[in-house]
């Protein structure tokens, strides 16, 4: 994009990046606890985050840097369909309000750190625990890789060539996550979120004012989509209504099954904290909706993009002074650090508790757990970095889509046990396998599309593969559980309510 | 009161409710401002349910 280095933008960028780096290392002493002696300290920040810290932390890791790049890119490319992120991030909160406090209480009472801990506690099945843990880890890896892509886009926009800046940024991130644990992203999230709010609020006021108002923005986009044709447009073409709704619904159910969002839930101080956050977090959804509109502003600004991912960086570079573009890029890059850190911590917690402790060293001490998790967080990050450096970007995108489909299949095992003791581990495990198998096969045979047939045929009613797989998953779980209960009526079902 | 939590699902997942451009508001086609409007409405609905619950008896 930029063929020369933007020095002003780069200086502002480096200033903020250095600031959060210092904060990241300093964070170990914030609300200090014995970081190296217990996984609750390193991996959950001491389970003490109140309403505001949790708001910044979950806001910071649920609305990721990649979102800031990818949602406007999708909206730019296809129009209304890309907007499914808005209903998705609205309906997720009634669900969070109803379910997550229940989950938090089970975790708090039993000292659980991960979703797989909760599942094992409910069903006493090592196989189901491992299935949930592996799904979480595998689904998280490409998600971390996407954060790197988001960071790479803004680094490239400032004219820095090569992979070295990205590698340097990631090594710094890996080091302070290693030393400070969840406290680092929790502290940095304050800076990140405030910067993103400033950037977006300025952009959504200034950009339309420059371009002739929102009416002009929407009509420019409308003209562009009329010229482009196909399934693009300012509203949904007939065949896209069901995909839109099922993607929103499925994504909402999947969102809080991920290790990084659950880490935010488990790290909070009380069930009240989570309930208040369900009321307050939608503020970020407004922000996300406004960010999505940046995709349309590209049309009104008459910019020519080489790739949809350049929509946001190009918009800032062409409409704002260099220092503000640098500030915006820093916000996006720091916005990548927070989720990448929490994701690697969530994955490390899963590995430590549900693989290492369950299979390698059952007698591990609390300090030992913290040590294993710290090392794992480094391995996870190096893995994600290698992914980006050595494999085509498209692989990360495809795997992240599959990851959403996979993580959704842990929903029955994690959530049903909070409310009923009826299900059996055998049923849930087979349901999980059926959902993952059918969903992966279907997505694979459709060219890695999340929909059964996204192709131009406007008439065929298609739906989100993940939701179909979840329905199959639940159906198998019910049938197998019913059979298991007939064959072995004595065996115990879920005991999570204890 | 807990039924209020289902209202956003109905309002947003039944897409034919809002898949058109008119009437527009402040330049936003209906499709967009309708969905934006559900953000504060959803917060409000959750808050109403929150207020109506009996406080947790357990550790808070």
Q: Which descriptor suits the 3D outline of chain A?
A: globular
The ordered string of helix (H) and strand (E) elements of chain A is HHHHHHHHHHHHHHHHHHHHH
Uncertain residue ranges of chain B:
none
Structural class of chain A: mainly alpha
What is the molecular shape of chain B?
A: elongated
Q: What is the CATH domain class of chain A? A: Mainly Alpha
Q: Which pair of chains has the greatest number of interface residues, and how are they split between the two chains?
A: A-B, 41 and 36 residues
Q: Total number of helical segments of chain A?
A: 21
Strand content of chain A: under 5%
Q: What is the distance, rounded to the nearest whole angstrom, between the alpha carbons of the first and last residues of chain A? A: 58 Å
Distance between the termini of chain B: 22 Å
Helix content of chain B: 40-55%
Largest sheet of chain B: none
Question: How many domains is the backbone of chain B divided into?
Answer: 1
Helix content of chain A: over 70%
Keywords:
heterodimer; A: 498 residues; mainly alpha; Sodium/glucose cotransporter; 21 helices; 74% helix; globular; B: 60 residues; 2 helices
Walkthrough of the structure:
The complex is a heterodimer of chains A (498) and B (60). With 498 residues, chain A is mostly helical. Chain A has a single domain (7-395), classed as Sodium/glucose cotransporter. Chain A has helices spanning 7-26, 39-44, 51-62, 65-78, 85-110, 115-123, 126-157, 164-180, 183-211, 213-228, 241-255, 259-266, 271-280, 282-300, 311-319, 322-360, 366-390, 393-408, 411-415, 425-445, 465-487. In chain A, α7 packs antiparallel against α16 and α9 packs across α10 (213-228). The longest helix of chain A is centred in the C-terminal third of the chain and has 39 residues, at 322-360. The radius of gyration of chain A is 22 Å and the shape is globular. With 60 residues, chain B is mainly α. Chain B has one domain. Chain B contains two helices and no strands. Chain B has helices at 7-13, 30-52. The interface between A and B is large, with 41 and 36 residues.
